[in-house]
């Protein structure tokens, strides 16, 4: 009875079968596996894969030390090499020389030529950038200078008119009379003083006014002479009329070197001369727009526009 009980299955036992036993491969799985392996063996590797394989093989060979089984080591041993460094010095090379693979079609010095061209291109770009910055700065500076020059020129003509008003008033800052009121004017140019006798600091203003008056008279005379015949010449006509009608030659104005020299100065320099003379002669500050009682002008902030805020 005991043997029969032992042979019976114990359904309450916790023991299980061997779970680590490999599963048997089915025929379908085996067929799929064989097809994959055949396809992998028949696949032609790409150039990139071949290059990677060659690189890995080369690096592995270079990283391997020479031993007695290596053909190169056997050849070197026959020539007397006993191992160690390659050469007489103790610090000679012990590792194989690294190989630098060239994968392009350029010559041996192609890399140096490329580097040289890259350096030249970089230097040219840097030079263009610097020139561009210089050009921009020059343009800004030139624009500022032109703006300041136009501003100074406008202030110069305004100061000239102020100086003229004081000179033609006939009384200076000390209450003394002067004779600059007899300046040439459009209303009485026939009895006026010569232009070169006008104060040089506002002589350009008087000259400009006389030129405009002369041009106006010539236009008027031309309009009046349109009804006359071209070949007619009046012996009693004025020289200006003869010039307009083409029967006379205009006389050149007398040269004025002092005026030419003054007009050759920059507007800012002419303005400075005019303002200094206004302060000295009439105790007048152009920036304050005020005429002081004495030469001290103690309430005036200064000589320049910046000092007046």
TrEMBL record:
Any one Gene Ontology cellular component term annotated for this protein: kinetochore
Pfam families noted in UniProt: DUF4187, G-patch
PROSITE patterns to which the protein is assigned, alphabetical: G_PATCH (PS50174)
Bias-annotated ranges (Basic and acidic residues): 34-50, 122-153
Entry superkingdom: Eukaryota
InterPro entries, A to Z: DUF4187 (IPR025239), G_patch_dom (IPR000467), GPATCH11 (IPR039249)
Domain G-patch: 68-113
Record region (Disordered): 1-57, 122-195
GO molecular function: nucleic acid binding
Compositional bias per record (Acidic residues), positions renumbered to this chain: 1-11
Protein name: G-patch domain-containing protein
Species annotation: Friedmanniomyces simplex
